[in-house]
Every structure is written in C-alpha cells, then in structure tokens.
Amino acid sequence: MPSTLRWWLRAPWDYVAMALGLSYWAVFGLLFTLLSVPLNLILPRKTGERVGRLMIHWAFRNFVIYLKLSRLVDADLRALDQLKDLGHPFILAPNHTSLWDVVFVIARLPFAVCVMKESILKNVFLGGGARLAGYIPNGSTTRMIRDVSQALDEGGQLLLFPEGTRTRREARWINPFKGGCAIIASRAKVPVIPVFIRSNSRFTEKGWPLWKRPVFPITMEFELGEMQHVLPDETVQEFTARLEELFVRELSRPHPLRREMVGGE
Q1: pLDDT at 151
Q2: 8: alpha, beta or left? (left if phi > 0; alpha if psi -120 to 50)
Q3: Which of helix, strand or coil describes residue 151?
Q4: CATH of the domain at 223
Q5: Domain total for the chain?
Q6: In a domain, 260, yes or no
Q7: Whole-prediction pTM value?
Q8: Exposure pattern of 118-142 as b/e (b: 16+ CB <10 Å)?
Q9: Is there a contact between 161 and 97 (Cβ–Cβ < 8 Å)?
C-alpha cells in the first residue's frame, strides 16, 4: 500500500490514540498532584522522594507500553537497562530530541533525579509528582548546582540534558551544549554517561505543534556512549566542548535513524 494512502487510512486511529495519550497525562498528572500534597506533609523527605519517583516511573513505564501497543512509538530501550547495575552516582546526559525523551528514560531508570524547567514544577498536571520526587528546578544556577550536588552525594542518578532544551528545528545535529553538566560533574566528581537518542521523526521537537500528526509508528533508539570523566586539568569549557564534539561525531555517523535535514523528510 502506498505510504501516502496508508497515512490517510491511519488518521482516525492516530488521532484517537493521541487523544487517549493526552487524557492519560491529564488524569494521572492531576491525580499525582492531589496525592503529593498530603504525602509531602506526612512523609520524611527521602521516603517521599522515593515514593514520588516510583509513582512517576510507574506512570511512564505504562505510557511507554501504551505507545507500543497503540502502534504510535516503537522505542528500543534495551541499552538503558545496563544502568540498573551501576552502584555509583552518575550524570545521564542524552541529546534532547523531543518532549517525551524523559519519559522513556525514567521508564527504565526509576530512581533518577531530573533537572527540569521551573515552570513544569508549577504545572497543575505535572508539578505535584515532580515536587514530591525531589526533581530539581533549573531557575537559579547556584541553587540548582547545590541541590544536584547534594542528590549525587546521596548516591543519586541525575538525568540532565546538556543542550538545556529540545534540539531546535534548524540545528543540524544538536544545540550548543550548556556548561551545567561539566560544572556538576567536576564539583561532584561523578562520571557523565552520554545517551544518543535517534528517531525517524521530529514529532514534539522544539517548535512542533502538538496538533500536527506525524507519520506513525515512530521508531526510536537509545544508545549508551562511553563513560566520560572531567580530567584533572580540564576546564568546564574544555569538557563541554569535548562532550559536544562526541555527540556530533556519533549522531552524524551513518545510521538508519540519523537525523534528517529540515525539508528532507
């Protein structure tokens, strides 16, 4: 069947499945917010964070299952399973292809700490569970570094996107990296584990309208890179440049899911 005809024939189901997915987040997001208020009051901080992270992990894991069963997204997450056996703190640093990158990571890494936009933590649907889980806002750099360093000192696993935001449409491979990842890795003395996310679609990338339907099913792959350490005499700028070069080199190599140029899709 020609791809254009198949795209139109799928349209009714795709829109229903997308609406169900949004409804899922509306229901569970509001439920988690309602639950987080009393739990924040009665549970000790560490217990509350563990409960909050498990709640979010459960919601994300089931959403990933839904995406697969509904034939919306087929994501290969097997590489992330290797992280479960690491017994030391680390920074997980993926490129940021879309809104739902964090969903796939947390679906496999239940106790990771996330750095996220402060506005999300104030969102009625997303903020309650995130605050209970101890996720860290990126508003104040000084406060963020302090809170992240404390979480890593306590054995946490940090999820941090070096780009700082989703990859912009006009970017060839990635946005220029921010220095936060290098600062935290240097201060906390923890390794950085690159994660290379590839997809055959730009759905929910920076600037993509939520109402715009892509070609489903979307295929995604998550691949771990070699663990990176800040060298003794390496500056923040040097490590950031080295990490960015690693991502450009890896994401630009020939691959079935290599990022297409704008207009080449």
Answers
A1: 87
A2: alpha
A3: helix
A4: 3.40.1130
A5: 1
A6: no
A7: 0.91
A8: eeebeeebbbbbbbbbbbbbbeeee
A9: no
242: number of Cβ within 10 Å: 15
Q: How many residues does the chain have?
A: 265
Query: Is residue 74 domain-resident?
Result: yes
Q: Is residue 23 part of a domain?
A: yes
Domain range enclosing 16: 3-252
Spatial separation of the C-alpha atoms in residues 235 and 178, rounded to whole Å: 13
Cα separation, 177 vs 163, whole angstroms: 5
Where residue 41 falls among pLDDT bands split at 50, 70, 90?
confident
Rounded CA separation 142/38 (Å): 29
pLDDT in tens, 172-205: 999 999 998 999 999 999 999 999 999 999 998 8
254: left (phi over 0), alpha (psi -120 to 50) or beta: beta
Instruction: Specify the higher pLDDT residue, 251 or 46.
Output: 251
Query: Is residue 82 over pLDDT 60?
Result: yes
Residue 2 confidence (pLDDT): 52
Asked if the structure places residue 238 within a domain, the reply is yes
